[in-house]
């Protein structure tokens, strides 16, 4: 009885540890990588990576229907199976001996590399910080996400900010702004929309208050490329104390915030990139950008930034330039771009708890290969010495 | 016996001496010391280089060659005299009316010729004077083409935009030292403070192609001045030594006075040496590199090595095979010297752009081949290495048409540490993959062409290919991971699925698949060889193909015309793979090499 029960299990173990599975997984990864690279032309890097690499299955929308069928394992699945296969094969086939020490280290490093990519896929946050010379920022922004900020600006020294993520606006009809007596009724939400001045022939405006009354809104398909953000727009109606404060148009394209007053407190409404506030602040003191003489080729970019963290009593200058990021408090700030005649600096801000894993993995694989090489060399040298002895 | 040992040394030594002859400075032209003029340091494209480099690259961009034949009597180019780039640039700068008659503009596109009312004929080279009546139309059409994204342009649009760029480059060159058609630089210096001079200074400043006046002694930095800026300085004070030197040089050449020309060049050299002493040495070294053309010489020597080896299969193998090896080593020495000079001149690791990666890929393959030949001594590695070296230098040659191959590095790439580690390792990985592919092609040719069975060579070939694939996997993996670390340092992510990164990953995966398939016994001799050839396809796609996608952070190496070359290469590799996979009965060696005799690969890890 037990033998029959064990058979499917050992068959599964055979499959899991087989070299064929390794090859199939690697071949599947190759196909995915090619597909992902080609798809970047239309989907943009992030779109293609989400479809092919960061997914468990690759889905195909059957044309003319709403059906979606999985057609290929996704990168996450191929990677996970490969990692399991590596671990299982390691435990089953490779005997635990000094002779195989190098290969053990190499495969441990490879497993760590795959795990690192999973950690990155799940936990990495990509943010941005754009500031002009002389300006101080105590926040970073998510360039690909928007939020509706409700800002209590009554106190001139202190703004109270309540951020409503766009995902919530997209699905909810009513949002209670936490910490305030205000409820927002979401009349309409547009992921991407262009704005233009209204002409007399246009349909009546949805907005009844603010600048939105004189603006025509045209819905656009959501952006798929990397270089442009969505210009998200929405019509919202703040309600407080049983009274409506009109329907307002908010859009990422409207620079000036719009405001209303409730019980002596002034609230601003602004659609903007989603912000995360930091317990410290950064001030851009100077941005420099040189080109090689007589050419347009950029030679360097650098931002001189003052870092101020009162909680830790830190106040110091930091120079951020190419290949020299500032790593601080779990985030890394990189020089990414610039603008406005070299007075605006854009820093890429990344937090990735797994950022160290690839470094460890790289060291492990290199050491492992060197160990394996040394062991093989020693063995072949002994063999040669033995052969030479036998010869003489 | 002793004589046989000398053969590789003799063959290699002769090849190196032959290549060294090119370095000898040319004799004066009509009494003018063009060599000394070519050595003058100037600043162009962000770095200091000799005039010789500027003239060679400009002529290369305009005509596609670094010198040309010209016969003023119009009896056809065969009877003409060879005009070097240095002589050409002297005429462009100081005797533009003569330079306008030189047939330097190569035009191949029939539609562009048609635009100018010309018929396509055997003469593809046109003088500036022949283009003058059509300049307005060329500019109009080029401006229209410029509205279209470079990748979307039609053949005609690309050709006309390219012609206009070359015409504009030529026009800038003509107005670099003095305005074309003006009395000359000396007159300009004398009248520096007079009314109207300022507009002319402004015009020179806007058009000048290179900067000949060194910054003042005692200052730092590369703030060389163009003639317009120098003249403006002269208007408010005394002209500097370099400016007056150039003025005398201009007078002497315009008057065709060789002896005062020689003195003026010496004066300018002295002024440059006083202001920037190292610029003279740098320019001198670069001119040696320009003359030697080590990668061209290497290409020739590799062909000789290949020919010697092919001949050795028919006649006197005892002499010709070592001779071929000697030639291969000589080619490797010349190739290495060329690489080292580039590294020293540029102050950068060997791989900085697509051109230098091609040079380096070939170098890696050749060095590996030299080592393998020493181990196996079958002559086979010599043939494959020489062929790989030759092929990669040909590719590099075709990539060099854009001008200066030692251009400045963009800020994002400006890191010698990462260029030296990531870029060099990954390029060695390319070399290894290509060499394994080349060996597999050699294996296929041998199986189909050679009648005499030779299991020893087959075994050696298998061993070499396997070893090279292991080598390639190690370097491509290491290079890819180092690239990830560089990306983490500069862009904030270890891996971004950028097309170039994906290409590198494909090479790693493919090499890993080959090795695992071999260890598992899923493929044998022919299978491994066919897979190694497919490695060529993957490497070429990763190297050039992703640049054609035009997306991602790495797409700085875009080229438009290489698409068909790449497609042809891939098709040829797939065709060869089909021949590799043909069953044994199709082989010439079929009788002796039955399937049962095929050596099985070594088992396990």
Could you outline the blueprint of secondary structure elements for this entry?
The complex is a heterodimer of chains A (392) and B (605).
Chain A: H1 2-17, H2 19-53, E1 57-61, E2 68-73, H3 75-92, H4 101-123, E3 125-132, E4 136-152, E5 160-165, H5 166-171, E6 174-176, E7 183-190, E8 193-197, E9 215-219, E10 233-240, E11 243-244, E12 248-251, E13 258-262, E14 265-291, E15 298-309, E16 314-321, E17 326-328, E18 331-339, E19 344-351, H6 357-391
Antiparallel strand pairs in A: 1-2, 3-19, 4-5, 4-14, 6-7, 7-10, 8-9, 10-11, 10-12, 13-14, 14-15, 15-16, 17-18, 18-19
Chain B: H1 2-20, H2 34-38, E1 41-44, E2 47-50, H3 51-63, E3 67-70, E4 81-84, H4 85-94, H5 96-99, E5 103-106, H6 110-115, E6 125-127, H7 128-131, H8 135-146, H9 155-174, H10 185-190, H11 197-207, H12 227-236, H13 241-254, H14 258-275, H15 277-292, H16 294-312, H17 317-346, H18 354-376, H19 380-399, H20 416-449, H21 455-490, H22 499-519, H23 525-549, H24 562-581
Write a structural description.
The complex is a heterodimer of chains A (392) and B (605). Chain A is α+β, with helices and mostly antiparallel strands. Chain A has 2 domains: 2-123 and 356-391, no CATH class; 126-351, no CATH class. Chain A contains 6 helices and 19 strands. Chain A has helices spanning 2-17, 19-53, 75-92, 101-123, 166-171, 357-391; strands at residues 57-61, 68-73, 125-132, 136-152, 160-165, 174-176, 183-190, 193-197, 215-219, 233-240, 243-244, 248-251, 258-262, 265-291, 298-309, 314-321, 326-328, 331-339, 344-351. In chain A, strands 4, 5, 13, 14, 15 and 16 form a 6-stranded antiparallel sheet that branches. In chain A, strands 6, 7, 10, 11 and 12 form a 5-stranded antiparallel sheet that branches. In chain A, strands 3-19-18-17 form a 4-stranded antiparallel sheet, with no helix packed on it. In chain A, a hairpin with a 7-residue loop joins strand 4 and strand 5 (160-165). Chain A is globular. The N and C termini of chain A lie far apart (61 Å). The longest helix of chain B has 36 residues, at 455-490. In chain B, helix 13 packs antiparallel against helix 14. Chain B is mainly alpha-helical and 605 residues long. Among the domains of chain B are: 293-404; 419-598, Up-down Bundle (Four Helix Bundle (Hemerythrin (Met), subunit A)), CATH 1.20.120. Helices cover 65% and strands 4% of the residues of chain B. Chain B has helices spanning 2-20, 34-38, 51-63, 85-94, 96-99, 110-115, 128-131, 135-146, 155-174, 185-190, 197-207, 227-236, 241-254, 258-275, 277-292, 294-312, 317-346, 354-376, 380-399, 416-449, 455-490, 499-519, 525-549, 562-581; strands at residues 41-44, 47-50, 67-70, 81-84, 103-106, 125-127. In chain B, the strands form 3 sheets. In chain B, strands 1-2 form a two-stranded antiparallel sheet. Chain B has a two-stranded antiparallel ribbon with strand order 3-4. Residues 551-559 and 591-605 of chain B have low confidence and may be disordered. Classes of the chains: A alpha+beta (392), B mainly alpha (605). At the A-B interface, helix 2, helix 4, strand 15, strand 18 and strand 19 of A face helix 21 and helix 22 of B.
